[in-house]
Amino acid sequence: MKTLRLILGDQLNRHHSWFNQVNDDHIYVMFEMRQETDYVKQHIQKVIGFFSAMRHFEKALKSNGHRVIYYRINDKKNTQQL
């Protein structure tokens, strides 16, 4: 059975126990979402830094052998809702 694990933008901790071992049955899911950028007024540089950190974390997970599904903010498959 596959397990989906949602990683939010404020949970980018490579030392979390989830990442100690690679398991093909675990799929990590990450979304860039408008609601994260619009719930309060934020400087564009903060938003870019936030999404950049998420993208780097995704790449690091993949380079360590983890399965990751990542939806960028402008992805057609990104419905902007969890």
Task: Show the helix and strand layout.
Blueprint: E1 3-6, E2 26-31, H1 34-38, H2 44-63, E3 67-71
Parallel strand pairs: 1-2, 2-3
Provide the β-strand percentage band: 15-25%
CATH homologous superfamily identity: HUPs
Query: Which residues sit in consecutive blocks of at least 5 with pLDDT less than 50?
Result: none
Secondary structure: number of strands: 3
Q: In CATH terms, what is the architecture?
A: 3-Layer(aba) Sandwich
Give the number of domains: 1
CATH class: Alpha Beta
Helix content: 25-40%
Q: Mean of residue pLDDT?
A: 92
The CATH topology comes to Rossmann fold
SSE order, one letter for each helix or strand = EEHHE
Total DSSP helices:
2
Structural category is alpha/beta
Main sheet properties: 3 strands, parallel
Q: What is the 3D form?
A: globular
Distance between the termini: 21 Å
In which order are the strands of the major sheet placed? 1-2-3
Instruction: Provide the gyration radius in Å.
Output: 13 Å
Can you offer a commentary on this structure?
The protein has 82 residues and is α/β, with parallel strands linked by helices. The chain has a single domain (1-6, 25-82), classed as 3-Layer(aba) Sandwich (Rossmann fold), CATH 3.40.50.620. 30% of the residues lie in helices and 18% in strands. A three-stranded parallel β-sheet has the order 1-2-3, covered by helices on one side. The longest helix is centred in the middle third of the chain and has 20 residues, at 44-63. The model has no long low-confidence stretch (mean pLDDT 92).
